[in-house]
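hi! just following up on the protien thing from before. the input was this:
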Amino acid sequence: MTDAQETAAEADLRTTGGAPPDDVEPAPIPLLAPREGVPPVVATQEALDEVIAAFAAGTGPVAVDAERASGYRYGQRAYLVQLRREGAGSALIDPVGCPDLTALGDAIADAEWVLHAATQDLPCLREIGMIPTRIFDTELAGRLAGVPRVGLGAIVENLLGYALEKGHSAVDWSTRPLPEPWLRYAALDVELLVDLRDALEKELDRQGKLDWALQEFRAIAEAPPAPPRKDPWRRTSGMHKVRGRRRLAVVRELWPARDAIAQRRDVSPGKVLSDSAIVEASLAVPLNANALAALPGFGNRMSRRQLEQWQAAIDRAKALPDIELPQPGQAVAGPPPPRSWADKDPAAAARLSAARAAVSAQAEEINMPQENLVTPDTVRRVCWEPPKPATEEKVAEALASYGARQWQIELVAPLLAKALAATAPAPVEES
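and the predicted 3d structure came back as:
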């Protein structure tokens, strides 16, 4: 907090005659600027070398954040990296000017990295050479601690009493030069991250959940990069409207055509052609570019050349032999959607109902979201194909095979084993 902020806070107390009444929640103190001011943006190797030396010499955890240009640019690359460490202060690094941050990552590799919602930032950090060995995820820590709202602004206000400005989270971070208000916002994102980490560690320890959190953080840090999605075109928004294999083929042809153009232009695919336009084309299967131009999303200022390239993709789908058309349902590994269980396997539906009730009660007892106690997918898998025999030991083995951590297994295995036993069919007596 700056001297000006301290003075303002003291003045508020003097105006109200001292501390606020016990029954009045004190207003959060606005955090308007980093304590050392907004650092200059690092965009040259010389400046980066100075940052690397400073952070290598620093002490304690390193607060790390990254800003992307989701919705504006192709992919999820980082366009700004923010760091803060005791003894080094804050740094704002431009990955466009400094695309390889491997040396920086190596310099702080032995430190604990503090991130908020780590799984969102780690992929883009990995792309530029920054790979942690230990992390502390303040958002996940808040969930495990039962904090009701875990967005960075809300949790900082709740635990530290400061109000962060959050007005620039969805801006185009590929903009150059970055406006000063955006840089101030970005620097503030790491200003209190280590303080927040310390407060959450203390709360988790008080609740007896600190070891649980450490197991979760270790699993995130050690997780391999996610493999590419299979058939990403199937995730087109509005796909539920598309019926018939030929229409599915139209989506399958338009999606990669759009993706290739978006990648070449380095823009978000939705700015090239919206998902709704792809769906409209698949429903209509237009005969030619003129008919395509009449569809929503293809008229207006779209050039003839653009219309023809989209029509060419549609024509490729129309020309496919039946044997090469996509199947209507994507092959799903694991159990079917729970809504179909009552018809497909009533016994499995009964197991799932009992298991969900047990998990819900346990999550409420320890003040934690159910999905953090155990993922819904894991519960479904155990209930759809329960181990035989469905003992607590066998259930624990099944949970481990699905990636559950040890603390989750210890809490959940007895619950699921009991639920499976309670819903097991009665043995048939021999006559």
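Confidence is low (pLDDT under 50) at residues 1-20.
Residues 162 and 186 are 16 Å apart (CA to CA).
cheers
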